[in-house]
Every structure is written in C-alpha cells, then in structure tokens.
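I am going through a labmate's work and have reached the protein record below. What it holds is a sequence and that sequence's fold in token form. Please read both lines and tell me whether the tokens look consistent with the sequence. Do not assume that whoever made the record got everything right. Thanks in advance; the entry in question is below.
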Amino acid sequence: MELDELERRLVPFCQDKYQRSDLQICDVHKMPGHAGFAYGFSVKNSFTNIDDKWYLRLPPPDVKLQGTADVLRQVAALNALPVEVPHCKVNWSDDDPEWFGRPYFVVPQLDGDVVQLDGTGWVTKLDESARQEMARQAISALATIHKVDWQKASYLGEPVAFSEDVTRWDRFVEKVAEPQLLELQPTVRELLLKQIPQNAPVGIFHGDFQWSNLFFANKGANAGTLLAVIDWELVGVGATLNDVGWFATFNDPQAWNDSRKRGQYMPQADVLVEMYAEAWGSDIPDINWYRALAAYKFSIITGFNLMLHRRGKRHDPMWETTKDSMPSLLSRADSLLR
C-alpha cells in the first residue's frame, strides 16, 4: 500500500477509534526491519498536547491469510501474555477489511531501540554488567512466556510436532540461491530426525527470539531496560526450547562466518543457556538439539531469502552478507549433534 493511500485510510479509521473528528494524521512511514508490511504514524489532536505515535501491522496483499500472513496470530499471543512480560498492548485489531482492505492490528510506538550485533550503536557504550543485566531481563521474559498456558491463545492452534519442525523446511531447500552452500543439509537433517527429544516442554514460543526483536530503552538512566518483546510473526505452539536454541545460535560466534561480529560483546550462547535454566527453575535437556535445529533452519532461511532478494521479489541486501554463514551454520549444527 502506498503511503498516501494509507494516510487517506487512516483518517476515518482514527476518527472512528478516537470518536473525534478534530485530529490530524501525520508522519506516515514504513517501519524499519525485515518484518514486511509495518507502518508508523502519528495522530495530532486538539485535546492533548502530545502526539500519539502508533505502529500498524498489515499482512501482505493478495496472499492466503495463514501462517506469518495471519497477523491476528500475533494479536492472540500478545493478548495472552502476563504483565511480567514486557510487550506492546494491542489497542485495535480486526479481521474486517473495512479500513485497510485486510486484517490489521495497532499498538503504541515505543521510544528506544533494539540491539545491533555489528559492534556499533548505543549498547557498546554500556559496561559488561549492564549488558549482562539486559540478557537476564530478556531471558526472564522468555521463561515467563514459556510458562503461559498455551490454551489461552487457542487461535494459535495445536502444538507443532517435533519432526514437522525439521521436515517443513524441505520445500524451501529446493528454492535456495547458491545451493552448494547447503552441502551439509541432508546430513544434518538426518541427524536431527534421529535425535528428536522426548518429553520436552510445550507452550507458546516466540519463533524469532533474538536481540533485534528485543526493544530496550536506549537513553539516560533507563538505558538497557527491556520495554517489549516485539515481532511475533513466527509465534506458535510447540517445543518452547526452540526459542532458547534460536537465541543461543544468534550469540554463538562458532556458527557465523560473516562480518557482523555476532556474540563478541553481548553474553554468548553458553551463558544464555545457563541463565535460562536458572530462570526456568530446572535443567533443560537436549539443548544442543535445539541449537542445531536453529542453525539448520536459519541456513535454509538465508538461502531462501537470498533467492527472493536476487530475483527482485524482496529487496534486502543483508542476505548477501549472511549467505557466507550458511556453511558454518550447518557445520555448527553437525558438531552440536555429534
């Protein structure tokens, strides 16, 4: 949707939600990141001295509203979270196409930033103890998410089978760019299927729990305070330790061979796993399997997104750098499983 069209649609929408006509829509823009159709906008009105800043999420146009395109899955997860988990409150959501031609949800914009793992930015100015505390906040939030009764978010459906979380990536393998970088994929796939964990905790998982989806205050005395776990696009019900393996993988220098300097100043994988076990209250079995699964999945995701970028379907040059880690991710998965 073009920004001028969106602005026109936001006028009657906000008049309806505010129940006022004396307001102005401004600063309509696309939000940064890789999440797709997300927009920011502000509402000026005559009854407050403060502009209200909002975040609007829409699914892609002309697609089946399922999986990541079903934005109401995110709403179901957010509404199920307790106050102990910092998150954005959903102010408005609906599947009625009256306003935007498709389902939507709106949450407040927050003032802060995520953590960049390229060795630059506001986080590098904090000392080590502050960065450790940021990790503890994140892990505490994650463990609390995993303890939520998943049936409170019944819209998310039934738990995903462990084997399915391995095999559902098969169809993407066939479409990746530079398939030679996935030489180890069949070997790792076989090892994963042979070592599927038994009796693992099941609940709501975030699906993409990493620093770029953790929004912190970044100024003043509150810098480093977790404000919200964001971007719930991949939320589901299943093995909650998937999130731990994912977070660990994104902070495991042995898994990466690109220039983003991952894991060099934020707490690394083994420390994060120990923090989670403490927050969860018991040992976490088979964690290497979940770490290997995360590395396996992201190597395939990288190849697939690289294909979309090169074919002009989704411009995102980041994948030209990340592709260098496809072999190292699979090699790390292989070593963890052995």
Q: What stands out?
A: The chain has a mean pLDDT of 93. The CA atoms of residues 58 and 104 lie 5 Å apart. The beta strands are 23-30, 38-45, 52-57, 92-94, 104-108, 202-205, 214-216, 226-229, 236-239. Residues 3-108 form a domain with the Phosphorylase Kinase; domain 1 fold (CATH 3.30.200.20).
